[in-house]
# Entry
Amino acid sequence: MVRLLEEVKEAQNLKRGEITTAKNSTYDDIVESISKSLSNGWISTEAVTQVLEAAEIAGRQHVCVFEVAQEDLGKVRESLNNPATLNTQTTSLEEFWTIPLEPYTRILADAPDIHISKVVAVRKYWVEHETPKSEDYIEIIRKRERERAALIVKLDAGSRLLQFRVPIREQAPGVDTSSSVYAFVSQIVYSQYGDHGAAWLLRLRPFKIADAYKNIILNRDDFELHADTPENQYLRSSMSRKGAPGTGQDIRDFPEWVYDNGFARSSIKGTWKRDPAGVDVRMHYDRVKVSKELTRLMARLYFSKPYSDQDVEHVILRIREHF
# Structure
């Protein structure tokens, strides 16, 4: 949005202070400047919705990656093209903050190799708030949050990879688990693709990200390791570098890290180096309890910062190249 406002300021030859273009602008300042630009006709609604649409495709999110069997590829593609509630109306600005009564789907791209859908739904969850009242008394309040959530479904027919991109919870960004993320995906798939969708969801194969961990750990060319979870038959460890990610801050450079051979992992965290800046990601290989009888494996990439669709695809490609 700041980049869009910079273009407006230059095109309209605006004076300093008429709209905000500072990188550290507050959310309210940006909204006010966008509203002013819209009301004065300096930008179009379409220009703003295009920016918002792109931001939802690859924002701060969990990306669950699965492999589609060749025999299921056509069935999955058919489902994605025929959701229960398809919205084909012109996208409005209000759509990006209004909580829908029921889920609906927008098909954003449908090329021979790539399909991208966005399912807009309400997401509900509990949040606990603790308030100290005295030295011996703390009041705990549990509040049920309701928020708009846009789930991105992306199918790459060439690689047969299916991604579910789940936005982080706005009011509780640090409490999502693999189970809660998968439960939301399952709920949305059933709401839009019915029993047929629920069936092919269970048949999806895990993207075996753990098979790439060993070679990623050995890669010092374009990967920087910030957190590791090595384990073998004798021990289990969890190591992470203190502080925020930074260039050259690789835990493999510390003498305490001695886990390059003979260890498995459930997750690693690091930065894939890419111009103009790297992509920070935590790579999980989760065991998700689907029911009392069924547990399934799932690859989950957690991006704590907003990145582009190209950045997300770059990370997935580099992981595949380490199998």
About this structure: The chain has seven helices and eleven strands. The mean pLDDT is 93.
